[in-house]
Amino acid sequence: MKKARKISRVLKSKPVIEGASVYLNRAFGFSQVPLFDPFLLLDDFRSDDPRHYIKGFPWHPHRGIETITYVLEGHVEHGDSMGNKGDITSGDVQWMTAGSGIIHQEMPKGDPSGRMGGFQLWANLPAVQKMMAPRYRDIQSSQIPKIKLDSGAEIKVICGRISEKIQGPVRDIVIEPEYLDITIPGQTTFSHPTKQGNTVLAYVIEGKGYFCKEKKPFSYEVEGINYFDMQREPFVSNGTAVLFEDGDHIEVSTDVDGVRFLLISGKPINEPIAWYGPIVMNTQEELQLAFEEYQNGTFLKHGKMNR
């Protein structure tokens, strides 16, 4: 018998400052570990003010994780310790596997009107892959399949398989992730299959919708919202994340307004996490070693730093 997923938790994104003074909103992060396993963090860096992002993320290390950057507006220039350079622009995705270690920078530039928009997701790596060689998957917007259903719903398939013929360009990732950008018009009900046992979450980026037929989503465990605010909305809106219980599909419906959301899922790793800043390992000893190597110049196992 099919089992629709129910809401487990609702989280309102919270403002934080990262990098060299970049203002962004964090949907979830360190304090929610291991709730979203295998995912560690989701940041929303949409802004109309260049002062909030222009200083960017100068040279910094990563080890033990994958970072997935999805740009909606503007562009992000990047470079790394292996000599790679590039520019992620509107609709593009960069799936970077830091593995054994990489030092890179990411500098948001915005569009001609100063708008910058996008998201960065961190995915954990299991112990056996944490020290793998770093690699990139740079995906241009034109490479991402876009499909329109009979209901009017539209899906951009960054990662995962929608049917035998439609699969996202990012493949062969150990946590078997799915990453979809879904838009549902008003007065529409949408259902999408999910693999049982996988962690599944949605992050609303436009409009508002009802998830899991629930008209009281904030009756669930909520983070980032005042408990005494009795004017809680009956729908989930922009800047809000929903974590689902287990099941084989999710259901989303809309009223007059439509909704756009990121749907992300992956296979839990179920391993200990030792996390500090941009480095995520399994033990405190491994974490300490990573920072010692960064300080003494032996951090990079593949390629040498050449800025």
Q: Identify the overall geometry.
A: globular
Figure out the total of helices: 1
Structural class: mainly beta
Work out the radius of gyration: 19 Å
Indicate the proportion of strand residues: 35-45%
What is the CATH homology-level superfamily?
Answer: Jelly Rolls
Distance between the termini: 57 Å
Summarize the main sheet.
11 strands, mixed
Helix-strand pattern, N to C? Answer: EEEEEEEEEEEEEEEEEEEEEEEEH
CATH C-level name: Mainly Beta
- SS elements, strand count: 24
CATH architecture assignment? Sandwich
- Give the helix level as a range of percent: under 10%
- CATH topology, which one? Jelly Rolls
Stretches where pLDDT is under 50 for at least 5 consecutive residues are none
How many domains, as an integer? 1
Mean pLDDT over all positions: 91
